[in-house]
Amino acid sequence: MLARSSASALERHAIARRLRNHRLANDCDAKHDLAADGRPNDLTRVQRVGAAQVVQSPLAIVNCPSRRPTLVYPLTANQGGIVGFYNSITPNVAGRSDYAANAGDVYCAWPQVTLGRGPKSYSDAQLWTANQSWGSEQPRLLYATLARVDTMTGISYERSSVRISNVVDGLSNTYLAAERYVPRTDYDTGLTIGDNETWCTGFNNDNYRKTGRLQDGEINECTPIPDWKVDVAEPDDRFGSAHPNGWNASFCDGSVRTMSFDIDWRVHRDLGNRMDGSVVRPTD
Length: 284
Description:
With about 280 residues, the chain is of the alpha+beta class. The chain has one domain (about 10-284). The protein is built from 6 helices and 11 strands. It has helices at about 10-35, 45-55, 115, 120-130, 140, 265-270; strands at about 70-75, 95, 100, 175-180, 210, 215, 220, 225, 240, 245-250, 255-260. The strands form 4 sheets. It has a 5-stranded mixed sheet, with no helix packed on it. The longest helix has 25 residues, at about 10-35.
């Protein structure tokens, strides 16, 4: 029997991809476990120190090499305000992400700071649940206008549990996640409100973006913009990129497509809403 001397180029590529994915998975698992000490109902120093290590451990998979290297950057804000993070030692630097989940066409963070801060502990979270205190349970936030336009329309948001069957407009017609706008003057400063926290912050515009702006009871344009663009409304809630010719978006069917900055704002709005009944193609 002759030994096989070499694998094909396709096989080598598949092996390399599996190894890379395996390393990424192990890296994510290792970071996740840094804050664990087997006492989930007690907030301990071990957990707080471990959580700070997570915050300060950037992930290459969530950084765009065209924008900035995988490093830590100044942490200039946190939802806990002057008291700092509730469940972590508050560091001075943090890893960042250059991508954002699709939160829908209305909110990518709660308009009330108290809701954005979240509960301080598991027991506090149980009280929030018992009292229906979560933002996604507030009647005034569930609908955007007097016409009762739904607000929880994206794929990911606070306490979301969106199933494939909930994406009624079709998986190939709905954004999953995409590159986000960061002004190029602030890549490494942490001075813009959409890029001043961490890669693992929760429902916040550091990690979530939207496809519409609620204004005077109507949902208006919120198209993606390049990093060098200024003087637009709510820039820190928009998708966008550092690339000159477009921005990359992943769809719920697993595809990744390069999109134009000139996409019609209504098409973009509808691609962020999984259930508006307006089925549009990304090329429309």
